[in-house]
Amino acid sequence: MNAAVSPALIRPLEFLSAAECSVKVYDSIRDLEAIRPAWNALLDRYRMATTFSTWEWLSAWSRNLGAARSPLVLGLFDDCRNLAGLACFSIAEEAYCGRRIRVLRMLGDGTRDSDNLDFPAAPGYEDILARSVLHHLRSHASQWDLCAWNTLPLGSPVVSSLLREAARLRWACSETTTVSSAISLPPTWEEYLSMLPGEERKNLPRYARRLNSRYATRVYRCANLETIDRSLDALFLLHQGRWESIGEPGSFSLRERRDFYRDLSRALLDRGWLELWVLELDNKIAAVQFAFRYGDRVFQLQEGYDHTRPTDRPGYVLRGEVIKALI
User: Fold this and answer.
1) Is the pTM of this model over 0.85?
2) CATH number of the structural domain 2-176
3) Exposure of 293 by Cβ count < 10 A (0-12 exposed, 13-18 middle, 19+ buried)?
4) Is the distance from CB of 287 to CB of 238 less than 8 angstroms?
5) 189-326 CATH choice from 3.30.450.40, 3.30.240.20, 3.40.50.10380, 3.40.630.30
6) Are 114 and 71 in contact (CB under 8 A)?
7) Cα dihedral 50→55→60→62 (10° resolution)
8) Over the stretch 84-134, which tens digit does the pLDDT of each residue have?
9) Per-residue pLDDT tens digits for 50-84
10) How far apart are CA 327 and CA 322, in angstroms?
């Protein structure tokens, strides 16, 4: 979900219902190092937490892709100085409708790499965080012209509170939604196959058998730094090869994005969250899938496969093998 708000006809705000709460402003990613343990504890309590709201994701994005943007992070603390909510933003001047204006985005947005950017909050603090955010934005309205908050997840309690409060304040708002896809995995591979259309149900195991008959086939998840570097090199090469063959630039034409993936992969590996999968044919990498997990959810982000092997369909086979392994 994407939402945009701009200040208009602002009325006085009845501020926090829990006056004991306080808000701390962070304008440097480095300054956030001090609250990393509290950040992790907050996400443990937030039912909609994903990798995209973690320190690992947002710090790696900021170092590699967010250099042109100024961080603005609001930390909500309860009366015991526990972190009760986070609002992670960044500000940069952008071209908008023929003008240069200051746009306040979610931290991680602006390069089409992030998803499910959200406002994690401890239970019971959702409305307080929303009011704190709008109070701060109203008090510092000279720093920004437009809020463009993209990829917000539907059902986010703080987002719902923000939209209600913005409407009450008569801020001008617009909202759009886009559809995303997800698979709820059944207990067994056989049950998963039974969920597929008839032709797909036959093709998935058939192509896997055919690869095994033609090549020495190996599928594995990267579990150390040595395999990560080799696999990422292959991902970049295979992904670019496919897209450049049809005249498109590809996601990894930017050095900054390649550096982001390397930086992020190391951080995710340390937390046990990395789901970087590889298919080798005769000891040569033919397909790579870059994914990561948070709890019992896995997010598939990028993939690359050898487009010169159209009859082997290595990318298709690897997707099936990863789903089988996750089941």
Assistant:
1) yes
2) 3.40.630.30
3) middle
4) yes
5) 3.40.630.30
6) no
7) 100
8) 999 999 999 999 889 999 999 999 999 999 999 999 999 999 999 999 999
9) 999 999 999 999 999 999 999 999 999 999 899 99
10) 9
